[in-house]
Give the backbone structure.
Amino acid sequence: MRRPWVAGNWKMNGLHQTNDELLKGISSLAAESEIDICVAPPAPYWMQVVEALEGRGIKVLAQTVSEHASGAYTGEWSVGMLQDCGVSGALVGHSERRQLFAETDVVVAAKFAALKQAGLQPVLCVGETLEERQAGETLAVVSRQLLAVLESQGADAFDGAVLAYEPVWAIGTGLTATPEQAQAVHASLRAVVAAFDAVRAEQLRIVYGGSVKAANVAGLFAMADIDGALVGGASLIAQEFLAICQAARQRL
Ligand code: PEP
């Protein structure tokens, strides 16, 4: 049984005061031990969140990271800075990074490699646009995004990593993939990894993201290859995030 994994991607939301309120709202998650829970606040608030969650077993992730170690990269932050601040890993290849910041598969793979080399957790996000789905290209697109890492770094690079299937058309739109649609893609992604290493594929957590909320999460978590959720908007509402974590625990 793969250990369920749930993360809240706060995106570019929150200020000190609202972060404090949200952290208080999810304070009952302190005793979680059966599932992995993470939050990904904006970089200026890493330290606030790391300190607030100290000793609680909830990990803090960055929403992206530079593929470079240091130097003249204005506005970026490195894996060394994540380590220095107590941040455990980072999302790479989120569709907003791919679409709004022109991150290519090659850049995403380099970020993944930088995290692995530092011993941090990469969360590789893959997903197709609505046009790609309607053109029947879903599996080709997500496989290409996954293979960019697999072919350059091998299946062992996924030891401790998480793969997130996030259909772009479902992110922040209120549209969710049906459990069956998501399961089909998750199973295909697992098969892509299995072609490299069947054991690693079986161990890999593949989580779903795209308008996940308390009301639709149970159906998703009932699917054999959905091992958790990457939650955007709903992770900003304490009761919603608590309910999603509770649903993940019930999956056990
Ligand atoms: C996300 O940003 O990763 C995400 C899934 O967002 P939302 O849950 O708001 O669709």
In short: The CA atoms of residues 119 and 182 lie 30 Å apart. The longest strand covers residues 121-126. The radius of gyration is 17 Å.
